[in-house]
Amino acid sequence: MVQWDAAEALGKIGTSAVKPLIAALKDKNSAIKSEVILALEMIGDERAKEFIDSLLEGIDLKKIATDYVSIINKGGKTWLLILALMRHGDLSMATAFLNCGNSKLEEAGLVWAKEHGYMIMSSFGGGGSGPQWGSKK
User: Fold this and answer.
1) Where residue 58 falls among pLDDT bands split at 50, 70, 90?
2) CA distance 46 to 49
3) How far apart are CA 30 and CA 34, in angstroms?
4) What φ, ψ does residue 125 adopt, rounded to 5°?
5) Which of 24, 40, 54, 76 pairs as cysteine with 48 (C-beta 3.0–4.6 A)?
6) Is the dihedral of CA 99, 102, 103, 105 positive or negative?
């Protein structure tokens, strides 16, 4: 997972990392590709946004943001859920991410909440009544 962590770190560097991140998308590992896409999204550079949008052709992030409960329950694509949260999410979606049992979604929910001025907490004992990662595969 060293490459995964490296992609995330590049995302925090900013616009100077856009070109190497786009080059990293040639990697055959889909987990690395998804992390690179998320790093590009975090940068927020127009080149990065255009590139991500070209990769998302035919994918409706608004629909994913609407259907996140069933996608979490099915154990769907984490990176698409996170992109949907970043672009179209709300507090209830971030809270569901925090309590769904998927560490990447939990982290994304916390980051989203902080960036939007909210403080969210895990349900006591976990599990809660919200969606659970992969519970209805």
Assistant:
1) very high
2) 5
3) 6
4) 80, 0
5) 40
6) negative
